[in-house]
Amino acid sequence: MQRDIVKDRTFLARKSAPATVDDAAVITDLRDTLAAHHDDCVGMAGNMIGSLTRIIIVTMGEEDVVMVNPVIIKRSGMYLTKEGCLSLEDVTRAKRYENITVAWQDDSFRRHVTGYSGWVAQIIQHEVDHLDGILV
């Protein structure tokens, strides 16, 4: 089900709890909400739709990939950039890394450890920041 985008900074600043199999509806809602915003959005975190669960969805080419309980375990190539967000009005500066390695689970809760770089790495970092209550 498509959800409204949360803009309450107090809510967005809260850390998200680990997701479980009981959070399957959040995955569906993230898919539906991102699909409705594909013209102006490439990723979302659970808290952006009102759920404080560690689930994100990231557009990777033609596919939207759900990452459950993502943790960035390695970073390299720090740079500064500017980012926008559906939950926030302003474009702000953010510190990002060109290359990251992420431990995560898919929507069937199978574990993965995957390296990402460039634009996809930047999106994942932005969404993981959301899960940690960090607003850009």
TrEMBL record:
CDD domains: Pep_deformylase. The keyword Hydrolase applies. It comes from the Bacteria. It is an enzyme of class 3 (hydrolase). It holds the Pfam family Pep_deformylase. Belongs to the polypeptide deformylase family. NCBIfam families: PRK09218.1. This is Peptide deformylase.
